Amino acid sequence: MGTSLQRIQRFVVLMLENRSFDHLFGYLKAVNPQIAGLADQEYSNYPDPVTKLKPQVFTSPTAPSAMKFDPPHEFEDVQIQLYGPAPTAPDGSTAPNPRSNPASMSGFLFCGNQAAATGKIPAEGPSVMQGFAAGQVPYIQTLAQEFALFNFWFSSLPGPTWPNRFFVHAATSGGLTDSPGTAAIAAGYSFKNDTIYHALTNAGKDWRIYHDGLPQTAGIDSLRSAYVDAFTKNFREIDYFVQDIKDGILPEYTFIEPQYDVGDNYQFGNSMHPVNDVSAGDALVKFVYEALRGSNYWQDTMLIITFDEHGGFFDHVPPPGAVPTGDDASYANAKNNFNFNLYGVRVPAIVISAYTQKGTVVGTDPNDPTTIFDHTSILATVEERFNLPPLTARDKAANKLDVALNLDVPRTDAPLVLQSPSPFGSTPLT
User: Fold this and answer.
1) What CA–CA distance (Å, rounded) separates 322 from 57?
2) Residue 40 to residues 35, 103, 134: CA-CA distances in angstroms?
3) CA distance 430 to 420
């Protein structure tokens, strides 16, 4: 273990929902050429594969603060987004689209248009190709420039929320590639080598999951009893986060779940799900960062902010090959024929600490395996720091986040308060 990681005594992870790197941070290429975004003039390489017409320019007009529909992002949808729609024969039939890597990344607009047409809002389809502009999501955009932005952090598989979130907890989804049904969630999921929380407990380390509403982690059978026993040390509502910091009881590992607001189709949550106002999720980012930055924990804590998957939004970097998990595949869908040897679409990820130099960009070459990260990089880093065994072959092989600890002396210039220069900014949580 490097001396830089030894300075870190605790980890705080905030995982938000359903945004791609280019969608949220693509414009930053104009600010810093080291950032692997997508400039307007480069977008001509990505026409609609069916009409062959260039859709709306990627960053103009800017992405809406809230979407009128949920872009598709199930496993089959992502296959189309990566490789383009299935070819149509003269008789009107279609054949499976071959998964030829590197992926062409050419089917996002096709999927967006189909979903928008189904929802009777066809003009909204191209919104999956738009990106946010400077100041539109000010708090997370500020942190991306103040600390370490990862150019090549990918979701753990080309699929939806549930299996990708399982990877950040267990380094596997147990073969799951699709969104689960109500019955499967009620039954609960379990994994061969359990979760990072069990590994921490076995090593005598404390952990806690803060949540706003029903946490997704309650879908893991072995965690459910800890959640049902309300107000235990392991599951607490986010309202207690600031007071727990003031009381000095923040554990070695903290995972923060946003408000998904499932009952209202995500419309009123703060997870940054496309249907809810992105400003609410940005306010959650501000709340978490400022609570840590103004505390006694600041100098020995690593804060990681990332997104579970891309949510159907365009990204131009093809996902690279991945190490299969090597555990069981109890929840596999045989028709998907996927062995977890490919990452999902690229997502935003920031590592924040007192030992992270302002303006750090991690990764310059997507073909360099040392620059590739996914959600299991979080687990690999925690395992390295606390001498825990890996859960699967994926986190055993994952690159670690100490690359973002590039200062010998803690910073004194990190902002105490994140400012909003934009009318899109929201009032912070209290």
Assistant:
1) 31
2) 14, 21, 14
3) 16
Q: What gap in Å lies between CA 335 and CA 229, rounded to an integer?
A: 38
What is the per-residue pLDDT across 43-58, written as a single tens digit (0 to 9) for each?
A: 545 554 444 444 444 5
Q: Are strands 301-307 and 10-16 parallel, antiparallel or unpaired?
A: parallel
What end-to-end distance do the CA atoms of the chain give, in Å? 38
- The domain 3-34+132-404 belongs to what CATH superfamily? Alkaline Phosphatase, subunit A (3.40.720.10)
Residue 268, number of CB atoms within 10 A of its CB: 13
CA distance 418 to 430: 14
CA distance 85 to 103: 12
CA dihedral (217, 218, 223, 227) positive or negative: positive
Q: Where are the beta strands (DSSP E) in 167-264?
A: 207-211, 235-237, 253-256
Quick one: 13 exposed, middle or buried, by C-beta within 10 A (0-12, 13-18, 19+)?
buried
Q: What is the mean pLDDT of residues 7-15?
A: 97
- Euclidean distance between CA atoms 151 and 350, whole angstroms: 10
Q: How many CA atoms lie within 13 A of 236 on its CB side?
A: 17
Q: What is the pLDDT of residues 141-197, one digit of tens each?
A: 999 999 999 999 999 999 999 999 999 999 999 999 999 999 999 899 999 999 999
Round to whole Å and give the CA distance between 163 and 374. 13
Contact by Cβ (8 Å): 1, 106: no
Instruction: Output the six-digit token pair for 181.
Output: 């049904």
* 3-class state of residue 338 by DSSP: coil
Residue 341 CA from chain centroid, whole number = 19
Cβ 253 vs Cβ 9: under 8 Å? no
Strand boundaries in 2-65, DSSP class E: 10-16
How many other C-beta atoms can be found within 10 angstroms of the C-beta atom of residue 248?
A: 9
β-partners of residue 211 are: 237
How far apart CA 413 and CA 402 sit, in angstroms, is 20
Q: In the numeric block, which tokens belong to residue 36?
A: 């692997």
